[in-house]
Amino acid sequence: MIKQDISKYKHIWVFVEHENGEVARVSFELLTKARELAKDLGCEVHAFTVGDKVEQFKDEVFKYGAKKYFIIEDPILKDYMTEPYRDSIVYLIEKYKPEIVLIGATTLGRDLAGTIATVLQTGLTADTTALDIDPKTKNLLMTRPTFGGNLMATIFCPDNRPQMSTSRPGVYKAIEEPVKGEVVKEKYDFDKSKYTKKILEKIIEEGEKINLGFYDVIVAGGFGMGNKDNMKLVQELADVLGGTWAASRKAVQAGWAPQTRQVGQTGQTVHPKIYIACGISGAIQHVAGMKSSDVIIAINSDPEAPIFEIATYGIVGDVLEVLPKMTKMFKEKLGKA
b vs e for 309-336, b when ≥16 Cβ sit within 10 Å of the residue's Cβ? Predict the structure, then answer.
């Protein structure tokens, strides 16, 4: 990696991911986080993307605080393909030199970020769960779980720019802060002979798909639930509270819940108003996916369980006895008995 003159780099750029005419919510979450980081750096937040018709997203990105919206539009960018997306985005970054580039850790974002960082010869920290600015060096501090989720590592890139990070959907809340922004249109001269790959067919995956981040109340079951049948107790409480149910990694690995309902570093990251952890010990891998919940209620028979360290309220007891009582109580309180 070649050391650069980093003095010319300024501002935070957020990639606006889109598909079928809709912007991925993680883009708005990262714009919100970028505004917080920009205050510490004394810089602006800019959005950027490429595609066939992407100027239409300007009102949405301005609503979340982007002062400028950099775009390249071309028919070759209608569907996501790594090479043309990479080349056009690298062109934008090399021309305008942002100090920080944030991309959602989605399937598309993970593919795109790695190839961009490689061309730019800069560092990339993937799947971060926290982003901060070092008050002394002004470097971006990027924190992510490592060693199977058992440790948290903080990574920084002092010598190269831009500093790049992917963050998983749901880590940050999307909060509106409208501004009057500016659209900056650029053109890129694509050498179409380079792009030999073609999309032959798009297949929509069938099966249950659920975005846990949309729910204000989540009741999650862990390995402490004992077996798959007992997960029904988790589902019943979630139904009464008007929320949804989820599971820990161990519960998913045991076959008690589908992977689409997993919360944690290898699942979804959530921040509901209420998170009820049932029979979940509180491993770092799981905590990374739910620690930003407004209120955390933990039920565990082990009073020394790590989950109690982050819980707002803790109940020490047999989860199989506590859950039915909670469900009955809430049914009566909410008039659902």
Answer: ebbeebbeeebbebbeebbeeebeeeee
CA-nearest of 122, 226, 142, 211 to 170 is 211
pLDDT band, residue 201 (cuts 50/70/90): confident
Partners of residue 6 on adjacent β-strands: none
Please check whether residue 224 is in contact with residue 281, taking contact to mean a CB–CB distance below 8 angstroms.
yes
- The residue type of 274 is I
Compute the mean pLDDT over every residue in the chain, rounded to the nearest whole number.
Answer: 91
Distance CA 271, CA 289 (A): 8
The amino acid occupying position 233 is L
- Helical (H) or strand (E) element with 197: none
Tell me the two tokens of residue 254.
């045991």
For residue 324 the two structure tokens come to 């039915």
Amino acid identity, position 276: I
Q: How many CB atoms lie within 10 A of CB 104?
A: 26
Q: Could you tell me if 225 and 256 are in contact, meaning their C-beta atoms sit under 8 angstroms apart?
A: yes
Task: Report how far residue 36's alpha carbon sits from residue 225's, in angstroms, rounded to the nearest whole number.
Answer: 39
Q: For position 149, what pLDDT does the model report? A: 56
Q: Count CB atoms within 10 A of the CB of residue 130.
A: 17
pLDDT higher than 60, residue 148: no
Contact 49, 73 (CB under 8 A): no
